[in-house]
Amino acid sequence: MNRETFRAMIRGLIATIIEKEVVLGEADAKESVLTILYLLEDLDLFWNSDMEFEENAEHLQQFIDKTREKYTLGGN
Q1: Could you give the percent of the chain with pLDDT greater than 70?
Q2: How far apart are CA 32 and CA 25, in angstroms?
Q3: What average pLDDT does this structure show over 37-61?
Q4: From CA 28, how far away is CA 55, in angstroms rounded?
Q5: Distances in Å between the alpha carbon of 24 and those of 11, 19, 73?
Q6: Domain boundaries defined on the chain
Q7: pTM across the whole model
Q8: What are the DSSP calls for 16-70, one per residue?
Q9: pLDDT value at position 57?
Q10: Which residues lie below 8 Å from residue 38, measured CB to CB, with a gap of 6+?
Q11: For residue 17, what are the contacts with CB-CB under 8 A and spacing of at least 6?
Q12: For residue 66, which phi and psi values (nearest 5 degrees)?
């Protein structure tokens, strides 16, 4: 894995979350979005634990936290 591949993978998964919300609506996208959020966290912990690929990992974590909160506390 290299930095460019890692960043492209993360951007692609974030874009997938956003597109699923737009196309399916939040209620129908919920299960997929939560799965992708867990995948994002797992990939970041595995590949970027030493911040080698993304020094600003807190931005990814903020996106994950905000999106997860929307689905778990939002009641969708």
Answers
A1: 96
A2: 11
A3: 89
A4: 33
A5: 20, 8, 19
A6: 3-72
A7: 0.87
A8: HHHHHHHHH-HHHHHHHHHHHHHHHHHHHHHHSTTSSS-TTHHHHHHHHHHHHHH
A9: 83
A10: none
A11: 29, 33, 36, 37, 67
A12: -65, -45
